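Human: For the file, kindly provide a plain-text protein record giving the amino acid sequence and the backbone structure tokens, at your earliest convenience.
Assistant:
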Amino acid sequence: MRLRLGRPALVVAAAVLAATVTFSLDTPAGSVDAQSGPNRLTSAVGALFTRTPSGGIGTHFCTASVVDSPAGDLIVTAAHCMNGRSAGGVVFVPGYSHGQAPFGTWAVKRIIEDQAWMTSADPDDDFAFLIVRQEGAHGGVEKLTGGMAIGVDVPAGKTVEVFGYPDNQDGLISCANIALAFSPTQYQFNCGGFTDGTSGSPLLMNLGVPGGQATVIGVIGGYHQGGYRASVSYAAKFSANLSALYKTALGEAGGLSARTRGGQPECLASPSPRGRQPAIQLLSLLCASQP
């Protein structure tokens, strides 16, 4: 358990593997790096805090990240992070580092969760979108930090980088490793240091790829709400339910916008006729088997 106690981009991956590749769940843990402060690659990741009665920052409890939306005010985290919490009692601080809030604090105005999570806490639906606003801001948070694309049904075996805010540190950590297949619906990520407070940390692909966009394919959560060992984390694979929830969140955050991005340079993207929303172009990705 890891909890203390622009424009929308959507990637739908249909994996056509050239060969069967098996990855051991005992893959060695990656090396954890402490981030000295936000930069253009990490500024969209932030810490979730409770909100004090005076509107200030209270106790840190989870991690979240900014995703593409027309209004620029949408973030994604693990649904279990919001258990027992109301929108008005949470603030998001992107780029938080050692007491500094370089992009200000953003109040959570709405929590958007999947019905399967709300009725049965299904670990495969342990994700939530939050709408955030800042009084007096000229535009959404994404205007300041940039936003992540959303990757749906991305096969395991890809190299990802994970960023999170542990409770026992006052800043961001990161680690790169392979997103393993713990189950057909869950990733496993082996990296030390991801303790309480890192629930909601994004699993990112394409970070720093020239011409690409950082793409979040899951957030720490899911099985055992992200796991009980700091060296092994889990994440629900972003699925059709996530895609539907994203569309709902886009509508509630200010309406759909007409653009997507493939976000996987190693894949050939082609338009799919299956798209039901004219504003969201679904992509069929013919992916190579390399991580």
Q: What stands out?
A: The two ends are 27 Å apart (CA to CA). The longest strand covers residues 57-67. Residues 240-253 form the longest helix (14 residues). The chain has one domain: 10-287.
